[in-house]
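User: Good morning. I'm curious how pyridoxal-5'-phosphate would be positioned relative to this chain. Could you predict the structure with it bound?
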Amino acid sequence: MATQSGGGQKPFHIVSPLLESLALSRAGGTKVYMKLENVQPTGSFKIRGVGHLCQTAAKKGCCRFICSSGGNAGLAAAYAAKKLGLPITVVVPSTTGPVTVRRLEELGAEVEVSGQVWDEANRRAQELAQTKGWVSIHPFDHPLVWEGHASLVQELKDSLETKPDAILLAVGGGGLLAGVVAGLHQVGWQDIPIIAAETWGAHSFHAALAAGRLVTLPDITSVAKCLGAKTVAARALECAQECQVISQVVEDAEAVRAVELGSVAKCLGAKTVAARALECAQECQVISQVVEDAEAVRAVEQCLVLGVGGASSIQGAQLQALKSQLGLE
Ligand SMILES: Cc1ncc(COP(=O)(O)O)c(C=O)c1O
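Assistant: Good morning! Here's the predicted structure, ligand included:
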């Protein structure tokens, strides 16, 4: 059962499966589990926090949601708005693919395109959010978003027999990281190290950790456009003071190659998972890296949980375009 959201309302997310990946476990010589957030209603973990924020805002009374997101957060917000019977405008950057735009529209969202990266779309969303009765649904930087994401850790606690030795997750704006840290505190697991994965060119968390303060990247040059933020949430940086957070940054080319190899699908024996995970280049790459670079896993003695955040689908043509862009042919 999913835990109740604020005010006793049923949350919009489901309790997702946690599966041991035999292939990854064998490769790493440790038990490797995957939390399959791709089975959430909109294909990613985002519905946990974004759904919780939307439900709380609706209860307080609002006439429209406004969300800036080139992908999963926007889909989650549009889904929540539909469930709540409220209109929503989703501002997306021009890099957002037509498939995502169509899915947003199918969910009833009004889609506005503004800027080339999320930060620019977000600026426009913040302008619109000044309209009376409109409520901004931030994709990663809001305490209610973190509170919703924290449910992931409670679920891990409920389904694992022993405490994991590490948790691996992808960082975009840092909302997932903040939510997992909140969850770790809730269940008393704050001593578990977190491996925080980014791609170069979307490495705003890595840059902030190195500088000891928030850093704004000049641009998102990674192909992981849908989740990259030029600046992470301040809370993400605080999290690194409260828990051991190991930053790991990987190359785009490796990420795309990992996608093509379908390593996720191989591990789970399901092609559809790979298709969904394609957009989530960071996670795919790290999963593949964990397989290939056994050193990362050897450091983990018993159990590693991969936070498969899930992702909306990508078309074969988009993958092809990414390969050409990265000179992988
Ligand atoms: C599938 C997936 N994983 C991880 C992330 C990173 O989440 P956050 O922006 O909260 O760091 C995102 C962000 O969009 C995502 O879509």
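The chain has two domains: 6-45+144-325, 46-141. Confidence is low (pLDDT under 50) at residues 261-299.
Let me know if you'd like a different ligand tried.
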